[in-house]
Design goal:
Blueprint lengths: L4 H14 L4 E6 L5 E3 L2 E2 L6 H7 L7 E4 L8 E5 L4 H7 L4 H9 L3 E4 L3 H9 L4 E3 L6 H15 L11 E3 L2 H9 L3 H24 L6 H14 L4 E2 L4 E4 L20 E5 L2 E3 L2 E2 L3 E5 L6 H19 L8 H18 L6 H6 L26 E2 L2 E2 L7 E4 L2 E4 L13 E4 L2 E5 L4 E3 L8 H9 L1
The protein binds glycine (GLY) and manganese (II) ion (2 copies).
Length: about 425
């Protein structure tokens, strides 16, 4: 189920084929982050570093030097240390990096100041993503200055610096068969979490208790962590886009919006369902819910190769504006309302984003100033929403305090799209049936 070492090797080869002759790419790993005093957050590898290596240790640096006779793939890492390993677990060490991760050459990271300047020296181009890690940026500049200071003795400082992001993120945008298998599994686990939350939901429970139901399902199925902090917003909390307090009581008659997805083997899923706390949609909830479902279907219908990135969003906007006019929440001509973005008061985000190792995954949305054309192997979310905060006095009272979003994870296929998260019910009939069972 996991990504094979052969695939990591292919990724590096692919990237190196795009690099210019006599160049070098440098990718530092993530480092441990303090949570409190002497306690760290659970370590999570940097997605770029992981994509190119599969290595899950902190304090490492990956270096690619296409065409280098003594090895193109070089790793700096922590040395083995029985004392540290007794407390914190195994380290690969330089030898392990060669044996397990197929590095051509590996050195202790404590020696990087001695070795890396020699690898940088004389390169025409350095691919490196500046500005993400201040400490490492400074180290790189230090090495370059060290080479400059030896110019009189014939040392040649590296030529241009180029951001690695663009090239690497283009590769990450197209998912392989193995990546899609993992992402389908992740989306399915998340869908099961949403089902569990629907089945266990009762008025009087707290939002965090529903969060716990999802987390239980994720962890039981091998995905220990969510891909992002879960949002469980009942009633008007659903209108707060990044609500993560999850501390309120679930009340009879309200809806609850859950935006929660697990991360499986580093791949994210991102799923939202909105359902009634008591298992039955009220009249107003039903009407607005059907509208969001229409928006989502209209958007999904536009996910196909050859269409551009913005077509699904445009379709959701049209469906929403038509619906709001029909219901009397907006007044005027649909076309002019769309033109002046009148819907923005109810729908203030976009219909989706790329999905992959990062929940808001990498990849350009525009190419040469045009919206990007969708191609098979790209993965995105489709997540329209409709939010009427309690403070919106421009609409009839009966609509206020309702927030709805429906979010699925979708692959662009050769012929159209594949929804990976369809295990979580989303029609009113399906949701009411599951909650009644
Ligand atoms: N959960 C973050 C998002 O939906 O984009
Ligand atoms: Mn989401
Ligand atoms: Mn999303």
């Amino acid at each position: 189920m996991i990504i094979s070492m052969a695939e990591y090797n292919r990724r590096r080869k692919h990237l190196m084929a795009l690099m210019e002759p006599n160049s070098i790419a440098i990718v530092p790993s993530a480092s441990e982050q303090l949570r409190s005093r002497d306690t760290t957050y659970h370590f999570r590898q940097d997605s770029d570093f992981y994509y190119l290596s599969g290595i899950t240790e902190p304090d490492a640096v990956l270096v690619l030097i296409p065409g280098r006779r003594h090895g193109q793939f070089v790793v700096f890492c922590r040395e083995r240390d029985s004392g540290q390993e007794l407390w914190h677990g195994n380290r690969a060490g330089p030898e392990g990096m060669c044996e397990l991760y197929r590095a051509d050459d590996a050195f202790p990271v404590s020696d990087i100041d001695e070795i890396l300047p020699g690898l940088l020296e004389g390169r025409d181009r350095v691919y490196y993503s500046l500005g993400r890690r201040t400490e490492f940026d400074r180290q790189i500049m230090g090495w370059v200055n060290q080479i400059r200071s030896q110019e009189a003795s014939g040392a040649v400082p590296p030529g241009e610096f180029t951001d690695l992001d663009h090239m690497l993120h283009e590769l990450r945008l197209y998912k392989s068969a193995a990546e899609l298998r993992l992402m389908r599994k992740a989306a399915d686990i998340s869908a099961r979490g949403h089902c569990r939350a629907m089945q266990r939901c009762k008025s009087g429970m707290y939002e965090y208790q529903l969060e716990a139901e999802l987390q239980y399902e994720f962890a039981q199925r091998g995905a220990r962590f969510p891909a992002y902090p879960s949002i469980v917003g009942s009633g008007a909390n659903a209108c707060v886009m990044h609500y993560t307090d999850n501390g309120d009581k679930l009340r009879d008659g309200e809806l609850v919006l859950i935006d929660a997805g697990c991360e499986l083997e580093y791949y994210a899923s991102d799923v939202t369902r909105t359902f009634p706390v008591n298992g039955r949609f009220s009249k107003e909830q039903r009407v607005l819910y059907e509208l969001v479902l229409n928006m989502q279907q209209a958007a999904i219908d536009q996910v196909k190769p050859g269409n551009h990135w913005n077509q699904p969003h445009d379709a959701s906007v049209t469906a929403l504006t038509e619906g709001l006019v029909e219901l009397g929440l907006l007044r005027g001509r649909v076309s002019s309302l769309i033109k002046r973005k009148a819907y923005r008061e109810f729908y203030m985000h976009r219909v989706g984003h790329w999905l992959g190792l990062d929940v808001h995954d990498v990849g350009d949305y525009r190419v040469a100033e045009q919206w990007r054309v969708l191609e098979p192997g790209m993965v995105m979310t489709v997540e329209p929403g409709l939010y009427v905060p309690v403070g919106n006095t421009r609409v009839a009272k009966k609509w206020r305090g309702i927030g709805i979003r429906i979010e699925d994870d979708v692959i662009v296929t050769d012929t159209g799209s594949e929804i990976m998260s369809s295990g979580a019910p989303k029609t009113i009939e399906e949701i009411e049936a599951l909650m009644a069972a």
